[in-house]
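> example.struct
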């Protein structure tokens, strides 16, 4: 399994996304799976079609939350709809479900 975390420089949600992703990976038996953090800069947004804002999480190259994206990738923050409302990262439970698919 390949896990990527796509972020813009100084993304305010990178830490929470990374923490939640690591928790979900550990909870689903993927303790040894590394998370590759890729920084997307303004000049490379167009060359990164999977990027739907920062942070974007890719599991084997696919965005499991693509249906929530409001449009093509933008050099901006991304907001996720979670059980408790809007958040800068998916919840641990949402990530667990995505990893189990």
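> example.seq
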């Amino acid at each position: 399994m390949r896990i990527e975390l796509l972020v813009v420089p100084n993304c305010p949600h990178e830490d929470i996304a990374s923490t939640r992703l690591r928790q979900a990976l550990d909870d689903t038996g993927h303790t040894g799976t590394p998370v590759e953090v890729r920084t997307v800069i303004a000049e490379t947004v167009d060359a990164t079609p999977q990027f739907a804002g920062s942070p974007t999480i890719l599991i084997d190259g696919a965005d499991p939350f693509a249906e929530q994206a409001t449009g093509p990738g933008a050099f901006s923050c991304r907001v996720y709809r979670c059980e408790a409302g809007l958040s800068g990262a998916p919840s641990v439970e949402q990530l667990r479900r995505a990893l189990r698919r």
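> remarks
The mean pLDDT is 91.
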